[in-house]
Amino acid sequence: MDMGMTFAEKILAKYGGEKKVVPGQILTVKPDHLLMHDNAAPIVSKIQPELKEYGIFSKDLPVIVLDHVIPAAAEKNAVQHKQIREFVKKYKIKHFFDVGYGVCHQIIVEKGLALPGTVVLGSDSHTCSYGAIGAFSSGIDRTEAAALLLTGETWLKVPQSIKITLKGQLQRMVTAKDVILSIIGDVSASGADYCSVEFHGNVHRFSVEERFTIANMGVEMGAKNAVFPVDDVTIKYLRSIGISKSKYTSINPDDDATYDRELTYNLTMIGPVIAVPHSVDKVKPIKDVEGIEIQQCLLGTCTNGRLSDFQIAAKILKGKTVHPNVRLLILPASRKIYLDALKEGLIKTFIEAGGTVLPPGCGPCLGAHQGVLAPGERCLSTSNRNFKGRMGCNEAEIYLASPATVAMSAVHGKITDPRKEVRK
Ligand code: SF4
Questions:
Q1: Is residue 103 within 6 Å of ligand 1 at its C-beta?
Q2: Where are the strands (E) in 168-308, listed by range?
Q3: Residue 309 pLDDT more than 90?
């Protein structure tokens, strides 16, 4: 009897023009979109002679978002941005988002450029985020992106699949970030290398924003992609951004699919956790690190810079002030989120509490500007990476946590359990 297929097998079979595929099989696929950000400049410069001769495969394929170092921090960034704008004009690129729109991954989803049942590849490792809405999305390197830009196709190896079933329900002040950090702490930073991670079980309890946080960090356990099933939550979200069901064909795994590994987590048992320096899988329960003093807090990024993240943080920060030893940086993942947060009064709450709002983009997440740390400093961040030097300084420390933990700790000046009463 023919066994069913996992999500990755099903979608790659479709894109590879096969009826049935098996893990390890190599397929040539034509993705729906190719994401690039500020790195479009070095990508395009790799293929100047070929571009002159053949042009690009399609002006609809690339999606370019300027987000990494915006507004330009140095002349070299400004020059790259200028080169990208010229490339966009010359080749009439359809999907270009200049400085101020937000982080590329958020923009792709918000603008409906990643849809259920589509394949999106990107020259950024957190491209895996669009599994939140049932797309197969994955990061590729710059050389591959350059070739894809010219030819419109690339090869992919069918990954093995891991099924993660979520049971129970989350406790108060415990968030999707605590869930994914707990899973990564368990399976390790390389535990899902080149695998497709599927989330099953009580996933209907997670909003698309929460799914985004979880899928975004799939690559932090080595996964090729991380995906949620397309359900009423997805359909409702897509409708809210103007995309009706007739615009996409979702692909969900078969019930009798075969998995390389199956893991189950009880959400009720998960508490607030922290990834301590200098690895994302060094995950500890908050009680083990409580009281550690911090000098900077970062609330935002493509992992946790959405409205629901700001809502929970604002609830904690309302009427409070950030500890005098702490700089609190707020980084909305997109202009739309920034505007929504303004409308709801969340930004006012952050500013009144002493926070500094940065323009929608990557900001200090990659250590290029806007909040670089000094030696000996500690930052508590809602971002997704904490290796040495990530925030611009090799002798600084980065701790990763949920928006609730970051907001509560910003008030106290030290790592604090968000389930505690807020300091008056
Ligand atoms: Fe990468 Fe950080 Fe930007 Fe996300 S916010 S795309 S992790 S640099």
A1: yes
A2: 195-201, 225-227, 261-266, 273-275, 283-285, 296-300
A3: yes
